[in-house]
Design goal:
The protein is mainly beta and about 120 residues long. The protein is about 0% helix and about 50% strand. Strands 2-10-9-4-5-6 form a six-stranded mixed β-sheet, with no helix packed on it. Strands 1-3-8-7 form a four-stranded antiparallel β-sheet, with no helix packed on it. Strand 7 and strand 8 form a beta hairpin.
Length: about 120
């Protein structure tokens, strides 16, 4: 069974930092791209960042230069380092594997982790 578990969220002041962690099970981790998404109530889930099996990071324009992404194949985890946080980053953050044709691989999302940035 494929599962994703997100952790590391919290409440921070604008300009602060958080490091989110995605734990993946049920997949051959070193072969997958891991994506991070975020969602605010009433809106669709938004793709934020991804890290390929080769370790290349990809980011939505609004977080470039502020966020970084890392993976540890031995631990089967992917971390999203978020720096210089802004109130607009407030959302529930989720991770998923990337389908070969793009988009999320699994319809079974993890619980997410809440990030709240106070101005």
């Amino acid at each position: 069974q494929v599962t994703f578990v997100e952790s590391g969220g919290g409440l921070v002041q604008a300009g602060g930092s958080l490091r989110l962690r995605c734990e993946v099970s049920g997949l051959i981790f070193n072969l997958i791209t891991v994506d991070w998404y975020r969602q605010i109530p009433g809106s669709q889930r938004e793709w934020v960042a991804g890290i390929t099996d080769g370790g290349s990071g990809e980011f939505v324009d609004s977080v470039k230069g502020r966020f970084a992404i890392f993976r540890d194949n031995a631990k089967e985890t992917a971390d999203l380092q978020m720096n210089d946080l802004e109130p607009v980053d407030t959302a529930v953050y989720y991770c998923n594997a990337r389908h070969p044709r793009g988009g999320p691989l699994s319809n079974l999302w993890g619980p997410g982790t809440q990030v709240a940035v106070a101005s």
